[in-house]
Amino acid sequence: TREENAAPRVAVVVCLLKGKTVLLGRRRSSLGDSTFSLPGGHLEFGESFEECAAREVKEETGLDIDKEKIELLRVTNNLFVEEVKAHHYVGIFMRAVLTDGDHREPQNVEPNMCDGWDWYEWVRLPQPLFWPLQNAVEAGFNPFHASP
Ligand code: 8DG
Ligand code: MG
Ligand code: MG
After folding, report:
1. DSSP per-residue codes, 26-48
2. If 0-12 CB within 10 Å is exposed, 13-18 middle and 19+ buried, where does residue 118 land?
3. Model confidence at 139, in pLDDT bands (50, 70, 90)?
4. What pTM was computed for the model?
5. CA-42 nearest atom, ligand 1
6. For residue 122, pLDDT beyond 90
7. What residues flank ligand 1, with Cβ below 6 Å?
8. Which of 37, 61, 122 is the best mutation target for the ligand 1 pocket, counting ligand atoms within 8 Å of the beta carbon and taking the most?
9. Span from the CA of 100 to the centroid of ligand 2 (angstroms)
10. Mean pLDDT, the chain, as a whole number?
11. What is the phi-psi region of residue 101: left when phi exceeds 0, alpha when psi lies from -120 to 50, beta otherwise?
12. Which of 17, 39, 60, 66 is in the most buried spot, having the most CB atoms within 10 Å?
């Protein structure tokens, strides 16, 4: 019911770029199951967007992002009303790169929440994308061109 999710939540999602590619994983979740989404999650009390971005990427992929190079790209307002429970997220899209000289591959640290991570070119994004990401793409969002 609406009551259970009465307050909007803040979600920080990370466009982790490597060369011409961005990191996406297929979700295992009641929200957007089987769709491809960016690493990310809920902003915790007291966190900066940058801290949240680095923490979620680490928790979900094991990768370390360069904390000096995290940038805010876009803010979106996402209402999921078709779900069993309604959800309302303010999505904070960040851009990040790996720490210098890091050539490790992402690990699927939370296999119950994700099928695995891989790098994709923006012009060859996998389908279907998680709905809020699809919306941003359709609105012209491109983390390779966006300026903060
Ligand atoms: P947490 O417990 O680790 O904090 O959260 P999570 O389990 O990692 O949450 P999530 O579902 O991955 O992300 C939180 C919400 O962020 C998600 O339910 C909806 C919103 N969100 C968007 N766009 C995207 C996106 O591209 N990727 C992810 N992961 N979440 C997104 O609006
Ligand atoms: Mg997540
Ligand atoms: Mg998470």
Report:
1. EE-SSSSTT-EE-SEEEPPTT--
2. middle
3. very high
4. 0.94
5. 4
6. yes
7. 11, 13, 29, 31, 37-38, 40-42, 56, 78, 89, 91, 113, 130, 132-133
8. 37
9. 24
10. 93
11. left
12. 39
What sign does the dihedral 104-29-10-21 (CA atoms) show? positive
| Terminal Cα-to-Cα distance of the chain (whole angstroms) | 36
Distance CA 58, CA 12 (A): 13
DSSP letter at 130? P
Q: How far apart are CA 114 and CA 17, in angstroms?
A: 19
Cis amide leading into 106 (omega within 30)? no
